[in-house]
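Appendix B. One record, verbatim.
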Amino acid sequence: MAQNTSGSASATAIEIHDVAPIPASDRHGKAWHLFTVWSSPNLEFATVFVGALGVLFFGLTLTQAILAVVVGNALAAVTHGIFSTMGPTAGLPQMVLGRTAFGKWGNLIPAGLSTLVAGIGWFAVNSVSGTLALSALTNMPVASSLGIVVLAQILIAFVGHNLIQVWERYTSYGLAVVWLIVTFLVLFGGHAHFAESSSFNVGGFTLAAGAAYGYTAGWTPFASDYTRYLPENTSKRALGLWAGLGNFFSTSVLMVVGAVAFSSIGIADNPTSAFTNILGNGYIASLTLLAIAIGSISANVLNVYSGAMSFLAMGFKLGFKTRRAIMVLLAGIVGGLVAFDAAVLDPTGLGKHLEGFLLVVSYWVAPWIAIVLVDFLMRKGQDLGKVSLSIKENLAGPIAFVVATVTSIYFFSNQYPTY
């Protein structure tokens, strides 16, 4: 059957497929679109601040911090590219495909975590960074800025996949221009503080690399959510490369910028304003604040959309055709309330909160990726779509996940005394 690759499907019609397989008649898009899908959501301030964690909280020199984020991002990009290739063949979201490794009932654990971490946790984190940027740019009250940011995020994700693809593609162009200018100003503006160190901080390096990995790999539980509409005959090599490179380059460049900038800024009550203040040009600073606000929206439309998908992948039977859209609305409201608490009621200590949140993400994402990847490799030649929709139990997945997550928490938490 001929399949549409023009990407001309309506961007304004509310998506109704939710977690069901995408039929061939609705397939569209091209592999290179994934580069912008995974670049745009990372071109935001949260990415910058992840790069700063090594020099601010983990006791690393600037060189060590840069190396840590590059290593973490590279590892995450490889698996992200592999997972992205699963979507076109099966036409299913990533958390449904995860049932092959966990079984339908065991999959409740990672799908539930994904719902909470992405649909609420990340939604709140990115909403705060976008809100602070918009408030600093316009001098609007923080609460009003938060309302605008949250409403925009919910609206785009409510409509669904096609509008998200269009939004990510076209915002990525403008965001890339602004961040290239900012990168040049930060890297060549005399802000780098290369402190000398007589030893390599293994504990701090592990935490910084883990935080970077957790941030970038945090997108992997959604990888096939944005490839399942592609034609089934899409080149897997091209698909994996575009997805992985989009994730790697955007996160690595901005994290290096964050490490360099905050090696001179230090800990600040409002990291967003502190960052834009060092740019030394009011016009560029204003453009950067606008880019941060738009970037946070780009990130959160994916978070709340895939968070809703993860909830539906748990198997809840909701009796209405637009149940995906309704779940986006509910998750956005809850995430917005969490963001209100952080940005308006308790705005101090945002950096520490982000640090802890990223480590929590690392604890569960890495074991989940490892288990699903091994299962994927062992099932080579099988129809993953059919297995995902028919399998009931696979106790090996949940058991391995619990053991690996507990072990991950133990070893990560015991790194703190080393720096």
